[in-house]
Amino acid sequence: MSAQSAARPEAPEAKAAARMALRYARHGDREMAIAVPMGSVRRLEFPDRESKSAFVTAVLKARCEANEELELFGQPVRNLSGGARQKLRARLGALSPIVGLINNLNAWENISLPAAYHGKPPLAEVAVITQEVLDAFGVEPRIFLARVPDELGKLERKIAAFARLMIAGPELAIIESLDEGLSRAECARVAGFEQAYRRRHPAGTLIFVDIREES
Questions:
Q1: What's the rounded Cα separation, in Å, for the pair 97 and 95?
Q2: Which of 28, 116, 161, 179 is 20 to 30 A distant from 189 in Cα terms?
Q3: 130 touches 167 (CB < 8 A)
Q4: What is the DSSP-derived secondary structure letter of residue 123?
């Protein structure tokens, strides 16, 4: 009997798991269960900073605590080898409130540094993606890219970090507390991050995480 005819049809639950970018569960205090389909955009609100931090840390490290369960792209992370964990992490990216720009580098150097270090993508492609992001948000590149982080406002620093995220091209991106520290008008502008991400990564998964506001 050939291997093809001997193969069994994939179980429905296996197909469903493969279509999930993320499954996360936390047990004990503040129990929660989260499922995010591949290619979707989700907005998740957590009851407190500790719960939000635990979720983001678990996902970005592809590692869960004893009271947590986590699957990424259909793969449980608990018993992964170091190499398999690193491969999963390479498919993830994030924009945090801290932003993480290096103070003595200008915006262009901060945006292009990961690509220059890893040797990909080529700097010409980095420049094209950066220009796309700046055009989308009406930013004049010559002045913006020459400034160091201390010369940038909070919105501008988030745009620089977002350009760096777009260059990395993660299959699953987490944007954490996007509106934090921004004015109402600035919040309206960063709402365009979703469209900009989807335009360059139409099959990617985007998760916005924040803390639930008390009513």
A1: 7
A2: 116
A3: yes
A4: H
Which letter, b or e, does each residue of 77-95 get, where b requires 16 or more Cβ atoms within 10 Å of its Cβ? beebeeeebeebbebbbbb
Domain ranges across the chain: 16-211
Topology of domain 16-211, per CATH? Rossmann fold (3.40.50)
How many CB atoms within 10 Å of residue 157? 20
State pTM to two decimals.
0.85
| Distance from chain centroid for Cα 94 | 3
pLDDT tens-digit profile of 151-200? 999 999 999 999 999 999 999 999 999 999 999 999 999 999 999 999 99
Residue 215 has pLDDT above 80, yes or no: no
Question: What CA–CA distance (Å, rounded) separates 90 from 58?
Answer: 14
For the stretch 73-122, pLDDT in tens is 999 999 999 999 999 999 999 998 877 899 999 999 999 999 998 888 99
* Residue 7 confidence class, pLDDT cut points 50, 70, 90: very low
| Residue environment code for 102-134, b if the CB has 16+ CB neighbours within 10 A, otherwise e | eeeebbbebbbeebeeeeebeeeebbebbeebb
Q: Cα(45)–Cα(96) distance, rounded to whole angstroms?
A: 15
Q: Is the CB of residue 177 less than 8 Å from the CB of residue 208? A: no
